Amino acid sequence: MPGRHTPRLDEASAPKPPARRGPRGWRRPLLIAAIAAFGTPAGARNLEAPLPTAIAHAPAATRAMLEKSRPVTAQHAMVVSAQHLATLAGVQILKQGGNAIDAAVAVGYAEAVVHPCCGNLGGGGFMTIHLKDGRNLFLNFREKAPLKATPGMFQDAHGDVVPGRSTDSYLGVGVPGTVMGLDAALAKYGTMSLKQVMAPAIKLARDGYVLEQGDVDILDDSSGDFARHPNVAAIFLDHGKPFVAGQRLVQKDLAHTLELIADGGADAFYKGPIARAVVAASEARGGILSMQDFAGYTVQWEKPIECRYHGYTIISAPPPSSGGTTLCEILQIIQPYPFARWGYGSVQTVRHLAEAERRAFADRNTYLGDPAFVHNPIARLLSSEHAARLRATILPDRATPSSEIQGSLGAAEGNHTTHYSVIDRYGNAVSVTYTLNFLFGIRQIAGDTGFFLNDEMDDFTSKPGVANAAGLVQGTANEVQPGKRPLSSMTPTIVMKGGKPYLLTGSPGDATIISTTLQSILNVVDFGMNVQQAVNAPRMHQQWYPQAVWIEPGLLTPVSQRMLQAMGYTFKPVRAMGADEAILIDPATGIREGANDRRRPAGLAAGY
Ligand code: DON
Questions:
Q1: What is the band of 43 on the pLDDT scale with cuts at 50, 70, 90?
Q2: CATH, residue 523
Q3: Which of 189, 250, 284, 585 has the smallest count of CB within 10 Å of its CB?
Q4: Statement: residue 145 has pLDDT above 50
Q5: Average pLDDT score over residue span 550-557
Q6: What is the Å distance from ligand 1's center to 417 Cα?
């Protein structure tokens, strides 16, 4: 674990004491609400319906909150992201005639400007795509370990993990993938030029944008780190002090970097002045990045993971993300359980979810790694026989100690992120999760490039059996090797119904990403929630180690919690978990229902 407290976005943007207001008690312009709002046309799903009966077990305050949760609706197209200006950049591209891929690239670049903790040029991620012609695609633009990386690089001479080395230094930086990823998606399936889709991001960086309270809450948590580096402080502090809501954040260096990319494409980033600046900064600060690392970086089109659950098809992330595999393994285990009858937040639901997750995460942490380096036994992990075997080990009346669970196939072979969803008028759907890993990555910017660099190397196993900063205890399948991609939990997902996209979902939150994405699906499919309720509802998480079940406030009634404790369950309360920016498409009418997660107050669902 890192020696210092590394802020997670979940903590950073969770509800806080009364906020400091900007100079004029700034509020989001009504215009945005007007763009977002759209009356419910005849024939649409009844979004005014009373709460589904499956929510009867939830605490009263949670039921009251869910009662008020309604998605934004639009007839043709929808974008949902964690920052409203990025959402509007996507809507602008869609209205100009772009498709969902054009809009997704525009949002990706815009978030690098207006959601700099997480949206990025200096990180990497994954894109799950459903094309209107029926094809399902997956783009892997995950960072790679530098060629000089070694399995023991995060340990000292005694073999102990050095706190902070993988999170606070240039050794934590993987070769970024975002620019090549967005370029590859646009070149293959977009219809617009890079210049067109990057125009909103360049404008936001050059002219600046007005910060909301939700934006400054995220910046605030890292202001101490910004102050340590003059080139970062010059941009992200206001004369040495944290910005307040209502002030304008201008990023001229970033605008210049974006212009170089708009003019020169990915080569400008990987073979030109941008790579040179990053390598120079890395060399000056003890890093190992080289020009060869940048020139040799590649993205990869892969076949997405697919599985079935209660009549729906789940399309999600394959390795080097563990997301789709673990999501599908959990769904396979819980498939026969009557969750709809047990209800959301009930003792039975929560404990069966926790036990299924405990077992699937043990497999995740033991067997999965970059498939270019290790064999991932996906077919066996997702088989119904394996699910049945694991189900049979769930005890009828008490918690299973995590220490009694091992990766169950026998010997192994071998906060920060953001999610957004886009659907266009043609039926193309894009679900993207990308990240710098921690908030603002290593919280350093190379020279005058204007963008933060990731600390994705912490997602590798620093030492087998020792938890990384996300608390994941992993094995050798995910050890560091030159050119290898660290195992991820990012789970950009498209749930299909009758061959058409039904639910676009995904989240930040390290290993909790998988649980958040899972519960958004269960909330809709099993508990009958609308998509806004599904993303707003309090969540839980279990990841093998630690033994505890993580719970958000409002998931369990005190009575349910006591009953679970009597069965041996322990709980780790977390203030907030994940941020699911989801879209549901009503199969009957095609109406797009967008839901910005209440945990990202600066976010927005908007469409037309
Ligand atoms: O790829 C992963 O699984 C992590 N690097 C994601 C980090 C993350 O979600 C942090 N955010 N809250």
A1: low
A2: 1.10.246.130
A3: 284
A4: yes
A5: 97
A6: 5
Q: Mutation test of ligand 1: which of 420, 490, 541, 597 has the most ligand atoms closer than 8 Å to its C-beta?
A: 490
What atom in ligand 1 is closest to the CA of residue 508? Answer: 9
pLDDT per residue over 7-26, tens digit each?
343 433 333 333 333 333 23
The catalytic site residues sit at 417
pLDDT tens, position by position, 453-464: 999 999 999 999
Average pLDDT of span 40-54: 74
Return the amino acid letter for 566.
A
72 Ramachandran zone, left/alpha/beta (phi>0; psi -120 to 50): beta
Q: Is the domain of 274 the same as that of 192? A: yes
Q: Whose CA is closest to 116, among 108, 128, 126? A: 108
Query: Which residue type is seen at 56?
Result: A
Strands 571-573 and 549-551: parallel
Same domain, 209 and 312: no
Residue pair 453/120 in contact by the 8 Å Cβ criterion = no
The number of domains in the chain is 2
439 and 387 part of one domain: no
Residue 437 Cβ contacting ligand 1 at under 6 Å = yes
Looking at the CA of residue 507, tell me the nearest atom of ligand 1: 9
**Is the bond preceding 546 in cis, omega lying within 30 degrees of 0?**
yes
The conformation of residue 437, written as its DSSP 8-state character, comes to S
Span from the CA of 25 to the centroid of ligand 1 (angstroms): 33
Q: Which atom of ligand 1 is nearest to the CA of 511?
A: 3
Q: How many angstroms is it from 532 CA to the middle of ligand 1?
A: 23
Question: How remote is the CA of residue 319 from the centroid of ligand 1, in Å?
Answer: 15
Q: Which domain holds residue 128?
A: 83-300+422-459
DSSP-assigned letter for residue 452: B
pLDDT band at 410 (very low <50, low <70, confident <90, very high): low
Q: Where does the pLDDT of residue 407 fall: very low under 50, low under 70, confident under 90, or very high at 90 and above?
A: confident
Q: Is residue 470 part of a domain?
A: no
- 417 DSSP β-pair partners: 435
Among 117, 167, 419, 435, which is best to mutate for testing ligand 1, by the most ligand atoms less than 8 A from CB?
A: 435
- Residue written as tokens 């620093």? 462
Mean pLDDT within 270-277: 97
Tens-digit pLDDT profile for residues 282-331:
999 999 999 999 999 999 999 999 999 999 999 999 999 999 999 999 99
- 256 in the same domain as 307: no
513 plus 565 within the same structural domain: yes
Q: How far apart are CA 128 and CA 421, in angstroms?
A: 10
Percent pLDDT > 70 in the chain is: 91
Token duo for residue 353:
């979810």
- What percent of the residues of the chain are helix, what percent strand, and what percent coil, each to the nearest 5? 35, 15, 45
Average pLDDT over residues 110-125: 98
- Residue of minimum CA distance from atom 1 in ligand 1: 488
Residue length of the chain: 608
* Tens-digit pLDDT profile for residues 554-579: 999 999 999 999 999 999 999 999 99
Tell whether 134 and 268 lie within a shared domain.
yes
Q: Both 149 and 219 in a single domain?
A: yes
Query: For tokens 């360049």, what's the residue?
Result: 202
